[in-house]
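ARCHIVE CARD
SHELF: 3
SLOT: left
DATA:
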Amino acid sequence: MAKIILITHQKGGVGKSTLTFNLAQNLSEHSKVAILDIDAQGSLSQLSKIVDSFQITTDENILTTNDHLDFIFIDTPPYLSSKLKELIKIADLILVPTKAGILDLLAIDNTIGLIKDELKEENTMIILNMVKANTTITEDILKNLDSHKIKVAKTMISDLVAFTRSPLLKGVTADRNAQRQIDSLTKEVLTALI
């Protein structure tokens, strides 16, 4: 059975789809990977014709017919959908990307509330994504996230153009810094799944 990794946050613009793509791309080098795109915007499913190292689908049957896969990433919409509760229940790992901003911090409460309702705190990791260089707000946000008692990834993903371009370039291998960050986060994800 594939490990199911849910990437969710009720706020839009926190980089869920880009992060999902890059983690899937990184793992696909040595594993069989798929992305289930349940976001109505369908950002990732639009890439299915140009991605060849992993599968992108909108067919939710993949969650039950996945013996041929090692990992399934689920990209969720930027709102609390009715499906989210069930997806939280079946997820082996829940990743909650957030930007280091006050509004992002406020919006994370509802997502974390759902995770806590399903008793999945131990299977959850918050990821600081699209982090601006040389800002003090990141430390302030980290202190506030501590109150949720949910693991925060040690790896922070910077706001780099390489990540924005990554779906067209099939990853971030051309940018050493971006590749180092996604490699480090991939290791944290794999460790959390063990």
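SLOT: right
DATA:
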Amino acid sequence: MKERWLPVGLIAGALFLVNVVARLVVRFAAGNDDDKQVTIGLWALFAVGAVMIPVAFWYGRRHPMLRLVADLGIAVVAACVLAVLVGPFVSGATPFGDGVGLVFRQFFYFVGLSAIGAVLGVLALMTLGWDYRSQSWKRYIDRAGTKPRRIVRR
């Protein structure tokens, strides 16, 4: 149980941490300048997507695709819920202060860019042939290509 959910929790925590750092930068560096706030927010979303590339690459080498999608999906949704509902308090606002529409947009942007990053990581992994299934096929071919041991009867 711990072997499965600990990495998922760490990934969710890392994604939430990226969001918290971005919110602190917005709070202390951007002030009331909307252009700077939007720019920092976009860079933070791209950073979340960029974090997902090596995470998906690493996770895909060790686990089948179904588990990768489930585990990373849970991690991304958990980090997104934290970022959308807890994150605004870091920057001195409230989650629904600007309306429900903004909450949904943040949710979809976060999940969308995370998914794009994960897909890029998995595609790189598949291109190199290092994914779980490719390695399984390679082991099967290596094993099937050998001749069985010859038994001598006396």
